Amino acid sequence: MVNPVIAILAAIVAVLSVCMIFVRSPVSSAFSLVGLMVALGGIYAMIGAHFVAVLQIIVYAGAVMVLFVFSIMLLNMNEETGEIDYTSWKTYAALGVSLGLAGLFAVAFFNWSQETGLPAQGVYTLARIKEIGGNAEVLSALLFSQAYIQFELISLLILVAIVSALVLAKRKVD
Amino acid sequence: MDTGILLHCLSAWLLCMGLLAVTLRRNTLVMLMGIELMLNGVNLSFVTFSRELAQINGQLQVFFIITIAAVESAVGLSILVNVYRNFGSIKTDRTNTLRG
Amino acid sequence: MSDFVNSNLPLWILFLPLFGFVLNGLVYPVLAKGVSRTKNILAGSIAVAAMLGSFVAAVLGFLQLAQGSAALHTSVYQWVELSDFSVGLNLHLDRLSSVMTLIITGIGSLIHLYSIGYMSHEKGAARFFAYLNLFCFSMLLLVLSDNLLFVFFGWEGVGLCSYLLISYWYGESANADAARKAFLVNRVGDLGFVLAMCMLYAKFGTLTFAQLLSQVSPESAAFLTGVAILLFFAATGKSAQFPLYVWLPDAMAGPTPVSALIHAATMVTAGVYLFARMHFVFELTPAVMSVVAWTGALTALLGGTIALAQNDIKKVLAYSTVSQLGFMFLATGLGAYHAAVFHLMTHAFFKALLFLGAGSVIHACDGEQDMRNMGGLRKALPITHVTMLLGSAAIMGLPLFSGFFSKDEILFAAEAMPRGSMGLFAAGLLAAFLTAIYTVRMLQMSFWGKARKGIHGHESPLVMTLPLMVLALLATVGGFLGVPHEWAHRMGLSGHLISDWLAPVVPVAAFDMEGAPLSEGMVSLIAVALSVVGILIGRSMFKNNFGLPLPALGRLLEAKYFVDEFYTALFVRPLYKIGELVSKTLEARLLQNLGTWMGVGSAWSGDRLRTLQGGDLQVFALILLGGLSLIVAISLFWTNV
Known about the structure:
The structure holds 3 protein chains of 3 kinds.
Chain A: H1 4-22, H2 26-47, H3 50-75, H4 89-114, H5 126-132, H6 135-145, H7 148-169
Helix pairs in contact in A: 1-2, 2-3
Chain B: H1 3-24, H2 28-52, H3 57-87
Chain C: H1 2-7, H2 9-31, H3 37-66, E1 72-81, E2 86-93, H4 95-118, H5 126-144, H6 148-166, H7 173-204, H8 209-215, H9 221-238, H10 247-250, H11 256-265, H12 270-277, H13 279-282, H14 286-307, H15 313-334, H16 337-364, H17 377-380, H18 382-396, H19 402-416, H20 422-446, H21 462-477, H22 485-491, H23 497-502, H24 520-541, H25 551-558, H26 563-609, H27 617-637
Antiparallel strand pairs in C: 1-2
């Protein structure tokens, strides 16, 4: 059965995601998103992916969302929000498509869960991870041996992103 | 219902809510937030699978996704600032010059 | 080289006229711009050369057959090759076909030559010569094919060329109407042909004559009756028998060489040829053959009576053709195929001669065709006059002319053959009697007597009179190909050459020499006597006035028994009414508004759909997602995919 903590955290995540969409001011949206990230990090921790949980909180909640709030401040968006237009057909089309897709996924999951045969279990059960010395140990061992090319590429990507952000945001010289 | 199913459904929910944010809101910033939401949904799915299948590749992938999401939001926001400068507003009603 | 030519003679016979058509019809207009008399002569020369080449090939083929070959066969092109059905363009020159090809190419060459003179003043005669060559090609295809399907192609082809040539002067709407009438009436008959082909294929699985011959047997006689009736129906259309003869008089609207070639010598004989080819089917259906014989006799009388009251010289000859074709079908119906073919040949000679002579008259009278405005032309057109006299003697069956032998053979068959009867014989005699009367009437009105309207005519040039002379010669001596055996021995000639020649292909009539009521000599005597009486009556009756003694009868005959009016009321008017109904209500109301509705609908839907391309990125995203959901749904729920 489900751990009640996980259940509560899941509920929080679901509610906050709806919140984010339907709330008026963009600041409120941003904050609900922050809360969502933190709760999600909590879920990761409860599952046993500790490294990812910390990463989520530090990078996602701590850096990306801060960036968003900075942009809101920069663009001076208090009340100008772009409200949802409930008279247009696009609203209902969007709602329909999204909820329909959600339903399809749910059906897929439930069908899948009835079927037998998950793929073969791997090695890294919770006990084994604990044995090795923790999530970070495992991940970093993998990162610097098997996946080191992706690692280097990611750093290159970050470099590119820094440069491009700088170039894009520069004020034009009149 | 066990944890796996719940979390998978949650991940699908997050994905769809992200979709909704992108298609429903007229504010470009909220659209970008919706994209972050979608990425989070995917992350959750990866982590849940890595726990269910006792493999570590899922978490490795999440590592990369989080990094890329950060990078992408940085670049996206700078584009947003540019759009604001050119069009004067970030509402998508104004940015429809790609008309067919 | 000669080997190549000799072994492929059917190819040369068939394709030289086609080559002439291509040159005159397609190449010539591109290369030679402008119209002039010399250009017309050039076009004509091309056409004549093609036909002469074809004639030479036909003669060579005839010689080869005479030396002992059974038939010359050339497979040109295998058109259909399925597992159970194969048909191809295979040319088969056997004895019957060689007779037909000689007639077609020989008389065709003469008429082409004549046309050079006749059409010399036309604006652009290349078209005429192209069509004439195309016609000869189609007719040759008809007689050279070895299967019914390609015969049908030739059949249709001659119908098409007839249409094209009748409406040659298409500026006059009357000509176009006549051409259309000819084509449509022919088409009605062609339905019979197509149905017969389908029936034969369904039953026997083949359309080739040789294979059908081997597969047809008396047990399928009931089935074959249907086929025979349908084929006869088709023949009535093409060969102008009752009830589908109505197009032939109208077809006189075309130039006279056309009337001579198509409507006297060749196309209208296609029906007789078909019967001779498919004799094995008709031999098994005596009921149909009786119908054929009686229809032929009836048509002969019909044509003969109407010809008595016509004032247009070409119309007289047209109805005369109908009447003579009736004779041919009478012979066919009796089973005397060789007599029918023999009469076909002699009729080609003298009827072409008569038509060309009439053309010479018309040419001299500057287009006047009404005989009431002619008269006394014998002084102005001596050569034409003499040749017309010879042709008339032939058609009336005067002794030793060609018509004498062929017509008397048919009359003898009418009373001597098993299917014959005295009724048919009497009908034939009456028709022959009428032939004499209307022919003399025609001569009286146009050549003899005093000149009425003072039309200055001049004799035609040599290019026109030469064919007349050649044809006159043939009409005079051509009959010696078919001298009956008993006389031949007395005269020291070889026997009935025509039937001997055709014997391997067409069954020779079973004349019951002993049991016949009248012997052949008696028949000839009676026929000649009737013709002479007819000449005398015609001469005296029509010396001064040209109407018939009974005015009411005259009006009836002149109006062709009101058959055309009857057909119009029965078939044409209702069709027009239906057409009006469709065009006024159906089309004007429904279909036009349909167009408007479609326009409005499309504008409306375009308006609605425009939002999809409005530049709104979120709508684009929605569309993408909608597609994605569709794919997911399909992969979830439709397990077969």
